[in-house]
Amino acid sequence: MQFDNIPAGKNPPEDIYVAIEIPANSSPVKYELDKDMGALLVDRFMATPMFYPANYGFIPHTLADDGDPLDVLVVTPYPVQAGSVIRCRPVGVLNMEDEAGGDAKLVAVPHDKLTSAYQNVKDIEDLPELLRDQIKHFFENYKTLEPGKWVKVQGWADAAAAKQAIVDSVNAYKADLTDCKAQKTGQLPGFFWFRLCR
Q: Which residues does the annotation say bind Mg(2+) 2 (predicted)?
């Protein structure tokens, strides 16, 4: 699948697309979509035998603080197949950091056109407390048995914060793309940019 052809959404930050890498409640295997190969790769077998409490993926055409696309957990009535793209609404964000820096996790629900099950979920507080606790617990503990890795959960933020994170990451992606184009055309010295252009 060519993920460069998938926009960030129909109307970001309100209406977004999320490319799913890991279905909810699946085996403790961390998958990542390799954008260059267009393939789902096994990133690692998780040392902690825990499963993701919601579908896990990213918003295409975004760039988060960690240099990757913005991470999203999508709450659905059934697990969504890895490699699929789902239309969503953001409802909150779990702010956290890990050994690589800031690593916020957005939480979204399916767009109302896909199901009416979440039409009353407008903010993170509208989701069941148990589910919020499970998500937080998962990210507090999923790296505990991996040497050199750690996570510090800072807490929940609302839908407005999630939407701002989307706006910021879309703008960061556009700026990065502009910088890469300038580098490729010789307007900027190659050594100035340490990341490979997309």
A: 71
